[in-house]
Amino acid sequence: MRTRFAPSPTGFLHIGGLRTALFTWILAKQQKGIFILRIEDTDQARSMPGAVENILETLHWAGLSPDEGVVLDRGVPAEKGGKGPYFQSERLDLYKKHAEELIEKGHAYRCFCTPQRLEQMRLKQQALKQAPMYDRHCLDLAPEEVAAKLKEEAPSVIRLRVPRERTILFDDAVRGEVSFKGHTIDDQVLLKSDGFPTYHLANVVDDHHMGIDLVLRGEEWLSSTPKHILLFEAFGWLPPQYAHVPLLLNKDKSKLSKRQGDAAAEDYIKKGYLKEALLNFLALLGWNPGTEQEIFSLEELVEQFSLERIQKGGAVFDVEKLDWLQGQWMRKMDPKDFAKRIQPIVGEKYPAAQKDKDFGKKAALVQERILFFSEAAHLMHFFYETPHVTLDVLANEKQKVTKDKLPTLLEEDRKILEGISDKKWTAETLLAAFKERAGKGDLKLGQLLWPLRASLTGLPYSPGAVEVAEILGKEETLKRLEKAKKIV
Ligand code: GLU
Fold it and tell me: Which element (helix H / strand E) includes 461?
């Protein structure tokens, strides 16, 4: 099984492109096949410097590096494999040869229409409310006429001769049988006057010569596919299996476009999404396992993914779902790896964290509560400096911790804590003592723990009171409690 991802290097890799790459990669891996990266850079005016590097680096980050084609070699784009070159701009002779072959076979023709004539034709069609389509002005030029114009060096393009009377049918792995009427298909330009192929010609020639078995791409290419099928037929080649995956939509069902921002895969990497979360999220955009399972590792996707379970309708890009998955994957991380990842981040702000031998224990307390690594310094600051505590953080209406009750509650906390010796100072014994006090009935556990937690961390949302107290130790815990008592 040979699959390919064939982006045009016109900008940063789009998040939908990453989904296409993911599905395409999975389909190759399921059959121990080859995942190829081909760069479709025939539109030179739209090619952007750095785009190829960005595509490769993003794929590498995601663990979806190509096996063949354009690959990263020690950080630099290089070509690998026997069916190259894999940059279309390096294959111009091949496209030209094949375009001419189509003329000989009668499946294509040369067109000398000037841009002015084409513009006039377009305006006329517009006025008549007709679909814009080439009027075949050059279809029946006599061979001598063509030869004479070529001799004059009149600029020309090569167009596909679409059999207008036919219906073009193909089987799409997602959409089933798809059909297009020939008369709705334009005589597509295949080779431009500057000798560059259009997307259609280059795409078909390469999918054939690169031995591609399966083409998975976004639904926006569906209407191009009958042209591709006609080209495969005209050359006498077998087309690959096509699979057109649904568009990505915003919550308001509009198309997720580059202009709406946040559509570059890179933005998600920069924001701090884990690759596991992002890939899990992308996999569920258009595919569903048919079970309740929502968390998928890449290995599980390789096991379970199938084209049959891809939906036809658009897939809504729900960032809340992404964040939920991010939280799930954060929690699943090996605690040691988690600590390793955040230690430099916290250490940058609080150098003491750098050499802190208890760092792992502290990190474990925030792992449950973190969405992005970048939040770690804020969530752990109270381990490395005395927190700034305010009345607003100490009080909490929902927990029945009103401001007027704070002096009593903090004093109760102090009494409980004083009663526990240094030796027995663990989260469990502390919790047991608080529970025992709450057992008397006049105060709830939450009323005792909330102000203690807030005194120790200064945060409205943080690891729990007794866990933090255990790490801070008895002396520091009581010191912070005293400080809080002074402001209530
Ligand atoms: N170059 C096209 C793109 O940018 C490739 C589409 C296809 O896979 O055929 O998406």
Answer: none
Q: Span 391-485: which CATH code?
A: 1.10.10.350
Instruction: Provide the mean pLDDT of the chain.
Output: 96
Nearest ligand 1 atom to alpha carbon 199: 1
Task: Give residue-wise pLDDT tens across range 150-207.
Answer: 999 999 999 999 999 999 999 999 999 999 999 999 999 999 999 999 999 999 999 9
In which residue are the tokens 């939908």 written?
A: 16
Closest approach atom of ligand 1 to CA 6: 5
CATH class of the 91-245 domain in this structure? alpha beta
Contacts of 376 (CB under 8 A, 6+ apart): 342, 345, 346, 363, 366, 370
Q: Show the beta-strand stretches assigned E in 66-165.
A: 68-73, 76-80, 108-111, 157-160
Q: Quick one: DSSP state of residue 178?
A: E
State how far the alpha carbon of 318 is from the alpha carbons of 23, 269, 281, 289, 307, in Å.
19, 17, 9, 18, 22
Among 5, 8, 219, the mutation site with the greatest number of ligand 1 atoms within 8 A of its Cβ is 8
Token pair of 422, please? 């240094």
Question: 235 CA distance to ligand 1 centroid (A)?
Answer: 21
Domain 2-88+248-309 CATH (choose: 3.40.50.20, 3.10.20.30, 3.30.40.10, 3.40.50.620): 3.40.50.620
Task: Identify which of 38, 89, 203, 208 to mutate to test ligand 1's pocket (most ligand atoms within 8 A of the CB).
Answer: 203
Q: Is the pLDDT of residue 259 over 80?
A: no
Residue 7 CB less than 6 A away from ligand 1: yes
Amino acid at 265: A
Residue of 314, 310, 307 lying closest to 248 (CA atoms): 314
DSSP 260-289: GSS-BHHHHHHHT--HHHHHHHHHTTTB--
Report field, pTM of the whole predicted structure over 0.90: yes
SS3 content of the chain, % helix, strand, coil (to 5): 50, 15, 35
Query: Can you tell me which atom of ligand 1 is nearest the CA of 224?
Result: 9
pLDDT at 262 over 80: no
Q: Using CA positions, which residue lies closest to atom 10 of ligand 1? A: 7
- The answer to whether the CB of 59 falls within 8 A of the CB of 24 is no
What's the chain's Rg over C-alpha atoms?
32
Q: Which residues are catalytic?
A: 258
Q: Whose CA is nearest to atom 3 of ligand 1?
A: 7
- The neighbouring-strand residues paired with 217 are 244
How far is residue 456's CA from residue 465's CA, in Å, rounded to a whole number? 7
Q: Is 20 in the pocket of ligand 1 (CB under 6 A)?
A: no
Spatial separation of the C-alpha atoms in residues 431 and 79, rounded to whole Å:
62
Q: What is the pLDDT of residues 323-347, one digit of tens each?
A: 999 999 999 999 999 999 999 999 9
